[in-house]
Amino acid sequence: AAARTRKIVGRKGEEYFLLDIEEVLAFQADGELVWIVTGRQRFLATQSLRWLEERLKGQPFRRVHRNAIGNIDHVRKMSVMSSQRWLLTLNNGQELIVSKRQAHGIRGLLRW
């Protein structure tokens, strides 16, 4: 079994922080930059979304859009945007759009 990632490195200015993976709500790409979103602030990631997605397999992180990975454990609300697109609201109030391609899989994960 693959080892679970427990910490992730985030940068703020010239400082690097070891963040507990459970406190991460999402990873969002903005051009060449990838942001780590926590409940209180954002940090610059030192890895690509593709690398993060691969590294976080088996954990509650799922690709929701080509520019975002969300932590399913931090989803507060799921709203319909159109017949094939959804809007996830995270615990901190931030919203993530779920692409048409990812909508079915995410909807299935969030059913109970």
Q: Can you put this structure into words, describing what you see?
A:
The radius of gyration is 14 Å and the shape is globular. About 25% of the residues are buried. It contains 2 helices and 10 strands; from the N terminus they run E-E-E-E-E-H-E-E-E-E-E-H. The model has no long low-confidence stretch (mean pLDDT about 90). Helix content is about 15%, strand content about 45%. By secondary structure, the protein is α+β, with helices and mostly antiparallel strands. The protein has helices spanning about 50-55, 100-110; strands at about 5-10, 15-20, 25-30, 35-40, 40-45, 60-65, 70, 75-80, 85-90, 95-100. The protein starts with 6 loop residues before the first strand and ends with a helix.
Helix content: 10-25%
**How many angstroms does the end-to-end distance come to?**
27 Å
Output the number of helix runs.
2
How is the main sheet built? 7 strands, antiparallel
Order of helical and strand elements: EEEEEHEEEEEH
Oligomer: single chain
Q: Please tally the β strands and state the result.
A: 10
Helix vs. strand class: alpha+beta
- Overall, the morphology is globular
Strand content is over 45%
Using only C-alpha atoms, the radius of gyration works out to 14 Å
Largest beta sheet: what is the strand line-up? 2-1-5-4-3-7-6
Pick out the low-confidence regions. Answer: none
Mean pLDDT: 90
